[in-house]
Design goal:
globular, 20 helices, six-stranded mixed β-sheet, about 650 residues, about 45% helix
Length: about 650
């Protein structure tokens, strides 16, 4: 479907691609990787026709449709969220507007109606509603003007538009950046049955592991293909680099031998022609490049925070509610020095609220928040917006602290987070969202608190920056509590897990794989949002969390329950969680069935539009019968899916 043949492209005086080639076929799932500045975005521009190669050719199969989701900044106007999701082509957008603004008996209205019907417009709205729901839009959001949404929600609406459109080639640039955990799981499951080809840039290794069948790495100005997912790519790359190093060393020995002969005998008349022949032999060789040495993630020891007391922070009998929505009632939580805990649980369980209560960003409505001795709190989310002066340069921002590090140290750390050369003299006002995130992390690491609270720290970071952060946190001697949807990052950093659901905390005194063994999730990603969990054994309960160790219950004075009442309440929560899980599983199954039926419906429509179909005896009749069956099945399954979405038993 897509062919890139012998393409050479230079940008800003630097050659990004040199005789690079790539083939993407229908149904392929391809991950595109490479360091920052390697040319990933330029390659997308070449495919989209926004840039032209200096040499070579980029060709798409005739009439193939292409959809593109940029990493940031998609447009939004006066159209509603649902209209944006249904805006799959300019013709349909115009037809929709005409149908809404013209009298039903006008010729213009009839013409628009015919066009809308011809392009299958009636199928798009129910499909768009299902996809928007999967991406966490509420039904009340459907009629909101898109321009009133935040940038992240606008990106979700555009993602919904692409999934409704179903282009034959889907280009995705960091598509998970703007998704919460449950939406990410839904999106990942949805893409497993996507009918077209996908070419994606992603820093999320788990996402790549679950979806792609090959990895394209931009290296040495070429496009190198590795079969398999991310983990397979890492293994193959290591083997390829070992082979390349061996071949490079052998060639260098041969070149040295030829050069030595030429240097020794070029002055002798009897040997001069042989010496010249050796030099020509060297010139004719196709030189093997030395493998690029893998840079260490962190190049020096980061500054360490002052030592805190053993008890870092304590929440006692804390209540917190947003209006009538009670998140915590009588919450008890204690963190001890050196703890490295990831917070997991379904959306709305209270993970971010707990982090903000610990940070002091949210005031305690009832109860006590007690920081320990000599505790300095750092909350990462606030750095992204509040702590960057738009007039200061990157370098000035990195050194803007009470005891600034040297310029050399600051530039070394900035380099680890991809601020290199003259990048350090940019003002923060011109930085992208990802660059601001990286700069905020640099500030935090150069002047670290001894209680570090981080909410999705890897969002907008590429693979190299995530590795740099993992390396820095590996050296960190303070206490870390964080939320993340990056399974690789969690496994590399977390030593304990705290599951949160319905205002209840269940600590697990083991790493993420230990938690996976105890949870009922079907995958490492889904375990992050699972509502019901397995028995944590001696290491936790559903009432209280104290440094990852169980504690015998917490209820507020006057609200203590008997053991029987607590057991009955636990059984009720367990039953409710099972019903919810069953409904969620059935909804996912229905979505997949509906998606397959819609794909078959599209195929049948195309067959029925071909004149030759009616030349084959009985073929059209058989196809029409199948179409009627599929239409009936779609109506039945869609009705069941909508009931599940409304929380009804079916």
């Amino acid at each position: 479907m897509l062919t890139i043949s012998q393409v050479t492209k230079a940008f800003a005086g630097r050659v990004l691609f040199e005789e690079a080639s790539l083939q993407v076929n229908r149904g392929d799932r391809v991950g595109l990787v490479g360091p920052n500045g390697a040319g990933k975005s330029t390659l997308f521009s070449l495919i989209l026709g926004e840039a032209s190669p200096d040499e070579g050719k980029v060709s798409l199969e005739k009439s193939a449709t292409v959809g593109y989701l940029p990493q940031e900044h998609a447009p939004a106007g006066d159209e509603t969220v649902l209209e944006l999701a249904c805006a799959v082509s300019p013709e349909l957008i115009r037809a929709q507007r005409i149908l809404k603004t013209t009298p039903e008996d006008s010729a213009e209205h009839h013409e628009a109606l015919h066009l809308f019907d011809e392009h299958g417009g009636w199928q798009f709205e129910p499909k768009a509603k299902r996809i928007l729901a999967g991406l966490a839009f509420r039904e009340s959001d459907f009629d909101r003007p898109a321009r009133t949404l935040s940038g992240g929600w606008v990106m979700r609406a555009h993602l919904a538009r692409l999934l409704v459109q179903e282009p034959e080639l889907l280009l995705l640039d960091e598509p998970t950046n703007h998704l919460d955990l449950e939406s990410l799981v839904w999106f990942q499951n949805y893409l497993t049955s996507y009918p077209g080809a996908i070419l994606m840039i992603s820093h999320d290794r788990e996402f790549l592991n679950q979806l792609v069948g090959s990895i394209i790495e931009i290296a040495h100005r070429r496009l190198n293909r590795y079969r398999g997912n991310w983990d397979s790519y890492v293994e193959q790359k290591a083997a390829r680099e070992e082979q390349q190093l061996s071949a490079y060393k052998n060639q260098q020995k041969e070149i040295a031998s030829l050069q030595q002969f030429a240097d020794r005998f070029r002055a002798k008349a009897s040997k001069a022609s042989q010496a010249q022949s050796k030099l020509k032999q060297i010139d004719r060789m196709e030189k093997i490049e030395a493998p690029v040495a893998q840079e260490k993630t962190v190049h020096f020891r980061f500054p360490q925070p002052p030592r805190s007391g053993h008890r870092v922070i304590n929440l006692k009998e804390v209540d917190h509610a947003y209006g009538d929505l009670v998140v915590y009632c009588g919450l008890n939580f204690e963190a001890e020095r050196g703890q490295r805990t990831v917070l997991v649980g379904p959306n709305g369980a209270g993970k971010s609220t707990l982090l903000k209560l610990l940070a002091g960003v949210l005031p305690v409505q009832n109860g006590e928040r007690e920081p320990g001795h000599n505790v300095k709190v750092g909350y990462f989310s606030q750095y992204r917006v509040d702590m960057l002066d738009p007039k200061m340069t990157v370098l000035e921002t990195a050194r803007d602290m009470a005891n600034p590090v040297s310029e050399q140290v600051a530039r070394t750390v900035l380099g680890s987070f991809l601020f290199r050369g003259d990048d350090v003299f940019k003002t923060t006002a011109v930085l992208s969202g990802g660059e601001k995130t990286r700069l905020a992390l640099v500030r935090l690491l150069l002047d670290p608190p001894n209680l570090l609270l981080m909410d999705e720290p890897t969002t907008h970071l590429d693979v190299g920056s995530i590795d740099a952060l993992v390396g820095a946190l590996g050296q960190y001697e303070g206490t870390l509590i964080f939320i993340s949807h990056d399974v690789y990052f969690i496994r590399a950093v977390a030593k304990t897990v705290l599951h949160i659901n319905g205002g209840k905390l269940t600590p697990y005194a083991g790493d993420y794989d230990y938690y996976l063994d105890k949870s009922r999730a079907t995958s490492a990603r889904e375990a992050l949002t699972v509502a019901g969990i397995g028995d944590p054994g001696r290491n936790g309960n559903t009432n209280n969390a104290k440094a990852g160790i169980s504690d015998p219950g917490y209820n507020k004075p006057g609200l203590r329950e008997s053991r029987e009442e607590r057991r009955a309440a636990a059984e009720e929560r367990k039953a409710e969680a099972k019903i919810k899980r069953d409904h969620e599983k059935r909804a996912r199954d229905l979505e997949m069935q509906i998606l397959k039926l819609e794909g078959r419906q599209k195929e049948l429509t195309e067959e029925l539009e071909k004149p030759e179909t009616y030349e084959r005896g009985g073929a059209a009749t058989q196809l029409n019968r199948e179409m009627l069956t599929i239409t009936a099945d779609l109506e039945r399954l869609t009705a069941e899916w909508e009931k599940l979405g409304e929380g009804q038993a079916v």
